[in-house]
TrEMBL record:
Residues 228-278 form the DUF2179 domain. The chain crosses the membrane at residues 12-32, 52-72, 79-98, 110-129, 156-172, 178-196. This is Membrane protein. It comes from Malaciobacter marinus. It is found in: Cell membrane.
């Protein structure tokens, strides 16, 4: 293993450690004391904890180990090792914090707990994913099924989470807690997305124009120096040219005005830039 691989692996385990601690605090500070359920095996472990005498950490290991053995050949050795370590860390942190240290709830309010617990768990999961690992459970099942079918992993995870939350209806008398658990899962998903993809304030613009040279010059002068001219063919075999640029939201109206003034016949397609890699991103 060369120096760069060692450095990357150390970085992975730093993210895994931070993610495991953050996720565990979300469970101990907010979810356990307020009887809220999250998705994945953490949610299933909470459900089993509420109906048995065994700890959350015990159930996380018990549920995850068979799944890990099932999916280990699909994950790769390094990923599998990181996943095992992540599961052990989260289980240990949860049990030590709740069973031994008796850390008290940060707030005893279902609404606040579902919101802030969802945020903490989302941050923890995002860190774990950035460490090229997983928290086990539904992630493993999703990877195995998606590798054997055309079903997307996100759809599988959603179905698993849905049934976990649905099961909680038979355990909790308060329907409100179940509904707030659903909201908490949604908040977790948003937190994961924001951390992994960032809060981009950019749009992708496809500009179809007959005044390519003029519009390219104006874009470089008023918008920015980066863009791509794409050659294409119309439905009637006529030559078409399109300018592709990524633009800040604050400059979008300026671009509209430039196009309207200099080429009223131009065609604009504007879409979200959900994720960017390279050139500083």
């Amino acid at each position: 293993m060369n120096r760069f691989c060692i450095k990357d692996e150390i970085k992975n385990y730093v993210f895994i450690l931070l993610g495991s601690i953050t996720l565990s605090l979300g469970i101990v500070w907010f979810f356990i004391p307020n009887g809220i359920i999250t998705g994945g095996t953490a949610g299933l472990a909470l459900l089993l904890h509420y109906i048995s005498s065994y700890s959350v950490g015990f159930w996380m290991v018990a549920v995850n180990l068979p799944l890990l053995l099932l999916g280990i050949k699909y994950l790769g050795k390094s990923f599998a090792i990181r996943t095992v370590i992540t599961i052990i860390l989260i289980s240990t942190f949860v049990d030590v914090s709740f069973e031994i240290l008796h850390i008290k709830a940060l707030v005893e309010d279902v609404i606040l707990a579902s919101i802030f617990g969802g945020v903490l768990i989302g941050i923890g999961l995002a860190f774990v994913i950035k460490g090229n690992s997983s928290a086990g459970g539904s992630t493993i099942i999703a990877r195995v099924i998606s590798s054997k079918s055309e079903i997307k992993p996100g759809q599988i995870i959603f179905i698993i989470d849905f049934f976990i939350i649905l099961s909680s209806l038979f355990i909790f008398d308060e329907t409100a807690k179940v509904l707030w658990s659903i909201i908490s899962i949604y908040i977790t998903a948003i937190a994961v997305d924001k951390i992994l993809t960032g809060n981009l304030n950019k749009k992708v613009v496809h500009l179809v124009t007959n005044e390519v040279e003029q519009m390219s010059s104006l874009i470089k002068e008023h918008i920015g120096p980066y863009g791509t001219v794409i050659n294409g063919t119309g439905l009637y075999n006529e030559n078409k040219k399109m300018i592709l640029i990524v633009i800040e939201v604050t400059k979008l109206q300026l671009l509209r005005d430039l196009v309207k003034k200099n080429d009223p016949e131009a065609f604009l397609i504007i879409s979200e830039a959900n994720e960017m890699l390279g050139r500083g991103h």
